[in-house]
Specification:
Length: about 400
């Protein structure tokens, strides 16, 4: 008789956002007259930029005739997109990343969940706490995390790097040396990040200790401060210790379109074994490429019109971020983030638990946010609001919160 992968049975509870959806659904069913404003999930709301839509239309038309039709995409992505990424995201920033070190995918969620397949089940991972839950959960499924303690909400074989107000919500070198370090910078959910000088210290630490960094730069487009790196490869030596993951979701609104990429440099080797070649093998076997139409849309992100339009889109969301941050400050809240990321991280008032504050905000202000505890034990007592709503809704939500 067949057996299931027992590791799945170890995953605690149901997924954070389905719990939120259930609570919101129950509330709206009981209060159909209330206008609930959602600043919870990290999904964008603005339409795709015109340059992207035009590129998609052109690509759709190409699919309509035999001469220009495209079937399976190349495993690693079309050359036109990989070159555009290499030139714009790397060469333009002084980083030497070649097109054949870039692997186009259907998004950073898949990449961040799949990348652990390259590593031994005996490796020990380190994660920021709180952080995007996919890193830990994908390692749970692979059987790398040990046992779960419901009391502490921690796994026995995971190194947690608490990001708290005491360390400005940024990770510190753990006491125990990890094999694999997940860094999500700017961080989801805290919206905080580190300077390039500090990132260089992480790169040096990884090279010194033989650890690998998986660097998730999904929010890179929101960086506004000069001394923050846009890619880990801006740091010296990163090509021998880091894989970088990028998404088109937040910089270009591709959450429903799906596109991302991973960079695995040729220099990245475990002994004699090339991780780039392993990832190429994995892509070749398990992935049949992102759709042609979508890769053309991705290429348009790097056109002059695309860049100008997306700059405006990011500015739109960042205006929301400062509206939320300033509004909360005026209302007396302790707030973080919102400068290099579209997330605002607030301390719940009067030591309320994250979920109690969720209920309070839903019932009293009809505003939905995300309980910080859903992102890791150190998120307890905190709450995330996102800047991805419309400006009008953001302003209205803040008026309601201020009136509480
Ligand atoms: C840190 C981080 N990485 C990756 C993703 C997912 O990106 P994608 O839409 O490209 O799968 C998210 C989405 O919220 C995220 O917060």
């Amino acid at each position: 008789m067949y057996q299931v992968n027992d590791n799945y049975q170890k995953l605690p509870g149901s997924y954070l956002f389905s719990n939120i959806a259930k609570k919101v659904q129950a509330y709206t069913a009981a209060n159909p007259d209330k206008n609930v404003i959602r600043l919870g999930i990290g999904d964008v709301t603005q339409p795709l930029a015109p340059a992207i839509i035009e590129a998609m239309h052109r690509a759709v038309d190409e699919m309509a005739s035999a001469e220009t039709f495209h079937g399976y995409a190349p495993d690693l992505g079309y050359e036109f997109l990989r070159k555009a990424i290499a030139e714009n995201d790397y060469a333009a920033r002084g980083c030497d990343i070649a097109a054949d070190e870039i692997f186009v995918s259907d998004g950073a969620k898949s990449d961040s969940a799949n990348i652990q397949e390259l590593f031994s089940v005996n490796n020990k991972i380190a994660v920021c706490d709180p952080v995007y839950p996919v890193y830990v959960d994908s390692n749970v499924m692979a059987g790398r995390t040990g046992t779960y303690d419901p009391a502490t909400e921690m796994w026995s074989n995971v190194i947690y790097m608490p990001c708290t107000r005491e360390n400005d919500f940024v990770p510190e070198f753990p006491k125990e040396t990890p094999d694999i370090i997940y860094l999500c910078l700017p961080n989801n959910p805290t919206g905080t990040t580190i300077t390039k000088a500090r990132l260089q210290e992480w790169v040096d630490y990884a090279n010194r200790s033989g650890a690998l960094i998986i660097y998730d730069g999904a929010y890179e487009a929101y960086i506004s401060e000069e001394d923050v790196a846009h890619s880990i490869y801006e740091c010296q030596g990163a090509k021998t210790c880091a894989i970088e993951l990028k998404s088109f979701s937040k910089n270009a609104g591709f959450t429903g379109v799906r596109l991302g990429y991973a960079v695995v440099p040729k220099e990245l080797k475990c002994g004699e074994i090339s991780l780039r070649d392993m990832w190429a093998r994995r892509h070749g076997t398990k992935f049949n490429g992102a759709p042609y139409i979508i890769q053309r849309a991705g290429e348009a992100v790097y056109s002059n019109e695309g860049k100008a339009q997306l700059k405006q889109q990011v500015a739109y969301y960042m205006r929301n971020a400062s509206t939320i941050k300033e509004g909360l400050k005026d209302a007396g809240y302790e707030v973080y983030g919102g400068v290099n990321a579209p997330y605002i991280w607030l301390k719940t008032p009067e030591n309320m638990s994250s979920w109690d504050f969720f209920d309070f905000l839903l019932e009293k202000a009809n505003v939905v946010g995300t309980p910080g505890s859903g992102f890791g034990p150190s998120g307890e007592g905190y709450f995330r609001l996102t800047a991805f709503g419309s400006y009008e809704n953001t302003v209205a939500a803040l008026e309601r919160i201020k009136a509480l």
